[in-house]
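Forum > Structural Biology > Help requests

Title: Can anyone predict the 3D structure of Olfactory receptor?

Hi all, first post here. I have the sequence for Olfactory receptor but no way to get a structure on my laptop. I'd be grateful if someone could post the structure tokens.
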Amino acid sequence: MQPLSGTGVSAFFLKGFSGYPALEHLLFPLCSVMYLVTLLGNTAIVAVSVLDVHLHTPMYFFLGNLSTLYICYTSTFVPLMLVHLLSSRKTISFTGCAIQMSLSLSTGSTECLLLAIMAYDRYLAICQPLRYRVLMNHRLCVLLVGAAWVLCLLKSVTETVIAMRLPFCGHHVVSHFTCEILAVLKLTCGNTSVSEVFLLVGSILLLPVPLAFICLSYLLILATILRVPSAPGRRKAFSTCSAHLAVVLLFYSTIIFTYMKPKSKEAHISDEVFTVLYAMVTPMLNPIIYSLRNKEVKEATKKAWGRSWTSR
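Reply #1:
Sure, ran it for you. Structure tokens for Olfactory receptor below:
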């Protein structure tokens, strides 16, 4: 079996759920609805955050970026996945695979950092209220978010280039519904140690480290809230970060369940179905959680909706 250089590969076949036609017919309407809700809900969050001057604060600046990220993340794989669910031709070009891999890695990594930045913002707002506006100024907000986007993009492009330059042998069937880097690496016949080291270091820096930072932030927030003398004051303090905490718990619980559970020797279709759902559930629920848990978002949405009707 002659190895093919990475640049000699023209296309990959994304196996996905091709062996389960009935499941494909079930997933198509389900994923279509979830993707539509994700686009509409997160676009509404971004629009409200921009249009309402009362929401021009660090918290909603970060929330707008998180919603933008969810739109970008789901758009990296869902449209093509929906096409493949209805088609027997499930191929993706080599360049398309590399772009999809890089963007998916980048947006997923940026989410980890954004959630940590938002936890830091809530820590300053509750634990340092008098100095909050000085410490979390607009320049720092832009710097933190810009650094998260740029650093994660550079990291992801580096990981993608290293992986896609490896020689590929034999078949080019990716046992996944997207160009997931670990699934693509299984097709190579070269030395993957460098790529695996990069992925391991990136996983450590972007999963346990931000999670530990988030946990520390909320421990300090909890300690501050418990020192508030009045019950209404405690409820008001906690309500400012409850929506973010719900998103963090949802994101990390699904990640831990997916990657920390015991792995069987053979891949099960149930694992792939859960991967599809977890990748779409958090982006879809983000606007719902913030709309239900945040009075300011609800009020701004009502005002924007009212203005849109009166303008007609």
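The first strand starts at residue 3 and ends at 4. The chain is about 75% helix and 5% strand.
Shout if anything looks off.
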